Amino acid sequence: MTHAFTIFWGKRLLLLGLVVLPLVLTGCQRSLMRAPVMFDQSRADPFSNLPESQRHGNATIFYATNRKASPGSSEGPYGRSRASSLILGQLNVEFGKDLSWDELMEKTIGPLGGKRPALTVDPPEEYGSLLTTAPPRVVKDATGDDRDEIEVRFLNRKDPGRGAFRFAEALNAEMQATNHKEVYVYIHGYRNSFIDAIESAASLHHYNGRRGAVITFAWPSQKHLLDYLEDRESATYAVSDLRQLLVFLADHTDAERINIVAHSMGTFLTSNTLREMRLIGYDKSPEQLHQRFRIDNVVLVAPDIDVDVLQKRFFREGFHDIPRQMTIYTSPDDKALAWATRLLFGIIRAGSITGDYLDETQRLWLKSHPHVSIIDITGQKTYGLGHSHHTENPGVASDLFLLLAHDLTPSERGLAITPETNVWGFPKGYGEAVRQIAERYYPLIEENPETGVEDTATADREINPPPTPLSPSPEAATAAP
Questions:
Q1: For the whole model, what pTM was predicted?
Q2: Beta carbons of 235 and 268 less than 8 angstroms apart
Q3: 4-8, 17-21, 389-393, 456-460 — which one is most confidently predicted on average?
Q4: Where is this region: Disordered (predicted)?
Q5: Does residue 142 sit within a domain?
Q6: DSSP codes of every residue in 362-423
Q7: What's the pLDDT at 345?
Q8: b/e string for 121-158 if b means 16 or more Cβ within 10 A?
Q9: Could you tell me if residue 222 is inside a domain?
C-alpha cells in the first residue's frame, strides 16, 4: 500500500513539476489576438472586399463540439465531458464594447498599439447533432414461430439529420454574405475550454478579413494542468467525429475550399483524421482526393506529435495527400513543447524541430514534395511560452494570412529557404518586407484629400502586381514550391 501510494503521488508530483511550472504562466485569451506585423503602420486593408452588411463589431462563429453541455458553467455552454455525438451550432462574438466599425478598424489595422479589444461570447444557438456521429440505432424484432424470440440489431446512422442540414444552410448563407465560398475549421490544442477555442477562432477569422465561414471544432480538452495524457486520449476519441464533419462539409455545403488550422495537440487529432481519410481512399490519387474532399490548406501550428510518429504513421501513410497544401510551423524555442518532451521521456515533438534535425532522406523528401512546407520561425517572437504562434506571433500570423487569403507560396510571402535542408525560415528585415508585400496584395486604405480621413479603396480598385519574391540564392529559387 505504501509503495503504491508513493508511486501514485510521485507520478502526480512529476507531472506537477513538468507541467504546472510553465503552464501557470498562460491564461485565457479574452481579447483580440496580437495584430499581424504586416498591418502595423501599413495601408493594407484585409476588409476592403467585405460587404457593408458585414462591417460591424460582431462576428458569427460556427462550432462543432463533442463536449457535453454544461449550462451555467464559467467555462462556457459546453464543458469537459465527452458527448456521444457531434453537436452543431453557431454563436456571436463581440469585439470590444459597442464599437463602431471605424473604431474597431483603428484597433485592428494602421498604427497599432494600446489595449486590444476584449472579446465577448454570446449564448449559442444549437442546431442539433450530426447524426452520422451518433451511436447506432438499436432495433429489436420479434422472431420465431411463436414470436417470443427477440433479435437485436445495431444500425449505423447514414442520414446526417435535419439539424445538420440546417447547419449547412447557415454556413452557405454566411459564405454568400461574405462573397467567399470557403470554410475554415479551427482545431484547438491541449488545455482549452470551449470559450478559449471560440475566441481564438474569432481572432483568426477577423484578421483573415472575415472571409467565408469559420467553424471551431471543440474537442473535450480537460483544461486541467495534470490531464495532459487524458487529453491525448480525448483527441483520439474525437478523430472519427472530425472525419465525418469534413465529409459532411464536402457533401452538403457550397464550400469550394475547406481550410484547416490546427494547434498543438489539435494537430495530433487532425493528422490522425487525415490519415484515416487517406486509408479509406487508398485507391484514389491525390487529385481525386482533392476533388472529393475539397480540402485546400492544412496548417499545423506547433504540432505536439512524436516526430517519429509524424514520419512513419502520417507521412508514410499519405496524410499529406488529402490537402492541396500542407504547412507546418516549428520552433526550437517552444517552451511548452520542451516540457512535453521531458514529460514523454525525451521524445522530441515535431513542433520543435529545425532543419538540422532532418537526415538526408527527409531533406530530399521535402524537396520532392513542394506542397509540404516546414517553416522554422526562429527570429520571430512568440509571446508567452512561445507556443501559440498563430495568435501570439505577429510575424507568423502575417505569413498565415497571406497563405490563407491569397494562396501565396512561401517565397511569394517573403520567406527564405535553406537549400541544404529545404526548410523555410524568416529572413532578416522580414517585418518591413512583409508590409510591402501586404500593400501589394491587399487593396489599400487611401487618404481622402477633402477630409484628410483615410478611406478604404473600392473593391474594384486596381491592385498592384505581385511583389518580387525574396530569394536568398539560385538554389533556393529552384527548391521553392
A1: 0.87
A2: yes
A3: 389-393
A4: 447-481
A5: no
A6: HHHHHHH-TTEEEEE-TTSPPPTTS--HHHH-HHHHHHHHHHHHH---TTTTT-EEETTTTE
A7: 73
A8: beebebbbbbbbbeeeeeeeeeeeeeeeeeeeeeeebe
A9: yes
Per-residue burial over 347-358, b = 16 or more CB atoms within 10 Å of its CB, e = otherwise: ebbbbbbbbebb
Asked, for residue 138, whether it belongs to a domain, the answer is: no
CATH of the domain at 22: 3.40.50.1820
Cβ atoms within 10 Å of 465's Cβ, excluding its own? 8
Domain range enclosing 8? 2-133+159-479
- Whole-number average pLDDT of the chain: 87
pLDDT tens for each residue of 403-417: 999 999 999 999 999
Distance of CA 87 to the CA centre of its chain: 19
The three state secondary structure string of 112-138 is CCCCCCEEEECCCEEEEEEHHHCCCEE
pLDDT in tens, 121-167: 999 999 999 999 988 877 777 776 666 677 777 778 788 999 999 99
Lowest mean pLDDT among 21-30, 101-110, 382-391: 21-30
- The domain total for the chain is 1
Cβ-in-10-Å burial (0-12, 13-18, 19+) of 11 comes to: exposed
How far, rounded to the nearest angstrom, does the alpha carbon of residue 259 sit from its chain's CA centroid? 8
- What pLDDT does residue 127 have? 98
